[in-house]
Specification:
Strand order of the largest sheet of chain A: 6-7-8-3-9-10
Oligomer: heterodimer
Number of helices of chain A: 9
Largest sheet of chain A: 6 strands, mixed
Order of helices and strands of chain A: EEEHEEEHHHEHEHEEHHEEEEEEEEEHEE
Largest interface: A-B, 38 and 34 residues
Helix content of chain B: over 70%
């Protein structure tokens, strides 16, 4: 990161509202052209963080640097970022064209130029020919596109998006996700995206900052965050996860090993320094767990036996809830096929997963 | 079930409809009829059609002067009221400040203070200012204007605040975000959306001032406003037949103004209800219907 100039650098920023600390000592560097998502439940500080970048809130402490300039104290109209608001915030008394041209007019762009750039933007968001409509005459998805065009036409240093797809139905949301990604790719604009939808975050972002209680719990690529969650909260918030508490029996190199019975054992890489007898929280994604009817052996991986409690058919996937003989409950996802169709409630099964698929959760 | 279409609800609607017709519209209709009645007394029987009362009042200089002073007082007091109400309404709906409840209570107090009390108090104040403090404030059109601003202000604020509260803060933020300073944001976004309510507040203040008789009688000094003149003439039978004619003219003018304002308000009001009235016609959208 250090050799690439950061478009936005958030440095040790804190913000409180009355007694409530909304953002606590957050630092983030967002690279030029990056798609960064702030992900977290409501009240985690993601929107406040974004509003501080836009200039609608001032931090109590810390610095916000936009392309090299500290912007703390600079009003929103003097900041080179633009925002897409949650409910679009289109000006209802202006046509689509005038909405998009609003920022250009204020920047005294000539009328001919304005016209050209508005048309380009309408083209980009797939609304060519809609310039004279009023926002009220558009559907939610179309209004969303206008909001996007109105922000992007100013060629901002970064585009801030505050849950922009929250008000759309599922089908349209999926489509807009692809569209947003395409537009970001075409313009190479830095996107900062706020959402509480983990799937949205995973499918669109270059990096995700998972936030909770005003703190960034983990910053990483979607794959990092999903496969190697740093804290139990991240693991739980980003997808379904098995968080299993086991007592360490021995270590081998960098691995911690828990022996549950003669043949059942769990191996966790990175647990080599754990003292035997100490408790570890082991994370395993449901889709990494194989479900076998009868007996199998593993080489180097984990193996645990149990009984099927529940089978939930999800279409492409089938979800198994298994009560293990060691007393824990594990959720496994398998592709629905003939094999999984034969597994039923009460059946004795053996679960296995590879050594690399387990990781240690640190309490946050 | 909707109360308005339930059996009891319909009866109640019917009742209130006829109540209004009998006690509001019938008197107006009678007034119009009498204004054209040739009889010297304002009562039945009908003695033939005449426009004499209209001609007479147009030559009644005292009456015309009263209308003129009422109109100018109303014109000035309504502008002052609106100019004061606008920033007050914005502060009430947008800002948090110390003792906001108290301030709003004080702003709206003239609504509940009896006019006679208010009139007496204002008279004492004006006398004090003039005689003790030495401020040259003669009882007359200026003091009536001030009194009318006081009683119209709460109505103007109550007209503007609800509209202001319906304008999402995000619109102003979007404007700021796109490069507008606070004044430009107000001028290009907030005010255009607020304008219908501001116009309503102006017209309401105008009508309140034009109609007002109690305060004008207390603080009016030698100035006779139109309602004061009507009130005083009720005692003189010779002038009485002109009154229905004057009333009809005033009614017609204010009727046109009020209807025009309402039409304007409704038309612009639609701009704020920008909902997703149009279905999403983006390809691949699948309508899910349950059979």
């Amino acid at each position: 990161m250090s050799d690439v100039a950061a478009a936005i650098s958030i440095q040790r920023v804190s913000k409180r509202f009355g007694d409530v600390v909304a953002v606590r000592d957050v630092s983030l560097d967002i690279a030029e052209g990056e798609f960064l998502t702030l992900l977290g439940p409501s009240g985690c500080g993601k929107t406040t963080t974004m509003r501080m970048v836009a200039g609608f809130e001032e931090p109590d402490a810390g610095r916000i640097v936009l392309r090299g300039d500290d912007v703390v104290g600079v009003p929103p109209n003097k900041r080179e970022v633009n925002m897409c608001f949650q409910h679009y915030a289109l000006f209802p008394h202006m046509s689509v064209g005038n909405n998009i041209a609003y920022g250009l007019k204020l920047k005294k762009v000539s009328k001919a130029d304005r016209h050209k750039r508005v048309d380009e933007m309408l083209e980009l968001v797939g609304l060519a020919g809609y310039a004279s409509r009023k926002p009220a005459q558009l559907s939610g998805g179309q209004q969303q596109r206008v909001a996007l065009a109105r922000a992007l036409v100013n060629r901002p240093a970064a585009l801030l998006l505050d849950e922009p797809l929250g008000a759309l139905d599922v089908k349209l949301r999926k489509q807009m996700q692809l569209e947003l990604k395409r537009i970001q790719h075409e313009l190479r604009t830095t996107f900062v995206y706020v959402t509480h939808d983990q799937e949205e975050a995973l499918s669109m972002s270059d990096r995700i900052a998972v936030m909770k209680d005003g703190v960034v719990e983990q910053l990483g690529t979607p794959r990092d965050v999903y496969e190697h969650p740093a804290t139990p909260f991240v693991a739980d918030f980003v997808g379904v996860l098995n968080a299993l508490a086991f007592r360490v029996d021995e270590t081998s190199g960098t691995d911690a090993i828990m022996r549950l019975s003669d043949r059942d054992r769990v191996v966790v890489p990175g647990g080599g320094s754990a003292a035997p007898g100490s408790q570890l929280l082991v994370a395993v994604r449901p889709e990494r767990i194989r479900v076998h009817v009868g007996d199998v052996t593993t080489n180097g991986g984990s193996r645990i036996t149990g009984r099927v409690d529940d089978v939930i058919y999800l279409g492409t996937l089938t979800q198994f809830h298994i009560a293990t003989d060691a007393g824990t409950r594990i959720v496994a996802h398998r592709l629905s096929d003939e094999d999984t169709a034969g597994i039923d409630h009460g059946q004795a099964v053996t679960l296995t997963w590879d050594r690399e698929d387990a990781s240690i959760l640190h309490d946050g | 079930m909707n109360v308005a279409v339930s059996k009891g609800g319909r009866r109640l609607l019917w009742l209130s409809f006829w109540f209004l017709v009998i006690f509001l519209y019938a008197p107006i209709l009678i007034l119009i009829i009498f204004s054209f009645n040739a009889r010297e007394l304002v009562s039945f029987p009908w003695e033939g059609f005449t426009t004499r009362w209209y001609r007479e009042f147009l030559q009644n200089q005292v009456l015309l002067d009263a209308i003129r002073s009422s109109a100018s007082i109303a014109a000035i007091s309504s502008v002052v009221t609106t100019v004061l109400a606008l920033p007050a309404s914005i502060a009430m709906s947008r800002r948090r400040f110390f003792a906001k409840g108290l301030v709003s209570g004080m702003l709206l107090a003239p609504l509940v203070i009896p006019l006679v009390v208010l009139g007496t108090a204002l008279l004492i104040l004006f006398n004090y200012l003039q005689k003790v403090a030495g401020i040259p404030i003669e009882l007359g059109w200026l003091t009536i204007t001030i009194a009318h601003v006081v009683i119209a202000l709460p109505f103007a604020v109550l007209t503007i605040v609800p509209r202001m509260e319906r304008i999402p803060v995000a619109l102003e933020e979007a404007s700021r975000d796109l490069g507008a300073d606070a004044w430009t944001a107000f001028r290009t976004v907030t005010f255009p959306l607020l304008a219908p309510a501001v116009l309503s507040a102006y017209l309401l203040s105008f009508v309140i001032s034009f109609d007002e008789v109690v305060l004008a009688s207390f603080v009016g000094g030698q100035t006779t406003t139109f309602p004061l003149y009507l009130w005083s003439q009720l005692r003189l039978p010779s002038q009485l037949p002109q009154l229905p004619a004057v009333a009809v003219v005033v009614l017609a003018i204010s009727g046109v103004v009020v209807v025009a304002a309402e039409v304007l308000r409704r038309r612009t009001d639609r701009t704020l209800t920008s909902s997703t009235a149009v279905p999403d016609d983006i390809p691949n959208r699948v309508e899910v219907r349950t059979a």
